[in-house]
């Protein structure tokens, strides 16, 4: 408030005027910012020279012309030299005798904001006492007098130095506060350890990079703070203490995050190494993206290498099948020749199947992450897989904890899990047993899905090479592409696959996928719902309203096109099969051309239906029947 500011200025001015010393403050442009009455009285300045904004050069000119500095040979040079000295902003202390015979001390110090402050003290009485002591103390030696003079001078310089040190200390405290604030805002942990591996500095971001660790760690030892992660970085710490810079990446077992740590020795010039500077960053998302990119490049290379071979091999198989077919149609062939012909045809057809699988692995595949209800996905998987299991095998599926809707390529995940369940079925054989599938969140980093069985488990060779294409332990019955396809799909999604044996017996395959929840928030907006079945339309409308959406309805594509002109429509949810000549897919294409972006389709068509496949290639498709959770997952925006 102006009144408060005016009061503050008057108080400051009154306080400065009570000081017995003269004081002036000039800004970085050498303009007078403030001075007290003692400054004007000491040098006899007129009023116009003590107003804020007066140039330092004008004040010096006035003093030189009055003889303040004694006789000068060159007036302009005397003024210029003093202005140049002031512009340098160097701290100084000096004593000089004025033209009126009085002595003053001048102490100047630069300011952090620019400019400088000067304090002028009348030390005439001190000088008179020194002269009196000198004239009346003939018994004192000359050396003692000189020492007293030097001591007095040193005391005054020491007082000036102390004032400068206090100002420097204040600036350092401010600098340290700014530095700490800056480091605490960084998305990384910055720390320092001494040679005893105790933390001497931390920006208190360790718990953000590695969840579960303490926030305030200064004074604590590295093994105590890092736990199981310490053993993974101990070699790098030792190398840093020996003077070697290094960067190390590891997976934190407790949180599942991928951590990159840089180690820099703390060496003072050429002296000994006193500790280690450490910079830790969470690079989990970068690692996931890097793994997906690497797998994509592998697929592209495999496609280039296999495309020509597959083409020629396919032609050869076609010729073999044709020739063998002609041979088998020859009358009166011996039975052994017929058997050879039929075996040759079976082998050629098996080669064709193998070519299809190679094309599936190496061909282009685009990952389509969409909001997915994991519980509904696993329920569907249970229904699909259970009929293919013998009566002696039992499938158990459960979720450990509660999982929100996640961004997943549901097709890739479901295909991979079905493949693993069928592999487990084959491993159980006629003896039967149990197949267990569980899902859980690993902190906020991974969705972990584990498939186990009670069979014989993996052999050593399978543990080592099981994810390689064409490796199989099934002899002639297996293609060796099942686990390789699982590895390919999960890696493309940015995840990992791990093979292991259970301590109690049986195999264990662990899939980890990036845990990316659908963006949280209250559902809102207007939905245009198109469904020709009145019962289904009413049920979906009720679910949408329970989720917080406003709903307008249409029973056909023509009616929907008219309603789509209304303002405020944000989302369209349409059945694929609609009465009339326009399908839901064609309707969605029309509305997309009009600028609507949030388009969803729903259908009861099976996944293999050509129309459903065509729709899924362009839009999100929600399979019927569905519940509120699956509907919410489909309707929410994806995570950026």
Topology:
Elements (H helix, E strand, L loop, with lengths): L1 H16 L4 E5 L5 E4 L1 H7 L12 H10 L9 H13 L4 E6 L5 E8 L5 E7 L1 H13 L5 H44 L3 E6 L4 E4 L3 H4 L12 H5 L3 H12 L4 E6 L6 E10 L5 E10 L1 H45 L6 H28 L7 E3 L1 H12 L7 E8 L5 E3 L1 H19 L4 E10 L3 E8 L6 H6 L16 H11 L3 E6 L5 E8 L11 E5 L3 H13 L3 E5 L2 H7 L5 E7 L8 H10 L4 E6 L6 H7 L3 E4 L4 H8 L5
Parallel strand pairs: 12-14, 18-19, 18-20, 20-21, 21-22
Antiparallel strand pairs: 1-2, 1-5, 3-4, 4-5, 6-7, 6-10, 8-9, 9-10, 11-13, 14-15, 15-17, 16-17
A few lines on this structure:
With 640 residues, the protein is of the alpha+beta class. The strands form five sheets. Strands 2-1-5-4-3 form a five-stranded antiparallel sheet.
Please tell me the CATH architecture of the largest domain by its name.
2-Layer Sandwich
| Estimated radius of gyration | 42 Å
Q: Which bin fits the share of residues in helices?
A: 40-55%
What count of domains describes the coordinates?
5
By CATH reckoning, the class of the largest domain would read Alpha Beta
* CATH-defined superfamily of the largest domain: Histidine kinase-like ATPase, C-terminal domain
Distance between the termini: 44 Å
> Main β-sheet: number of strands, strand sense, barrel status?
5 strands, antiparallel
Read across the widest sheet, the strand sequence of neighbours is 2-1-5-4-3
List low-confidence stretches: none
Strand content: 15-25%
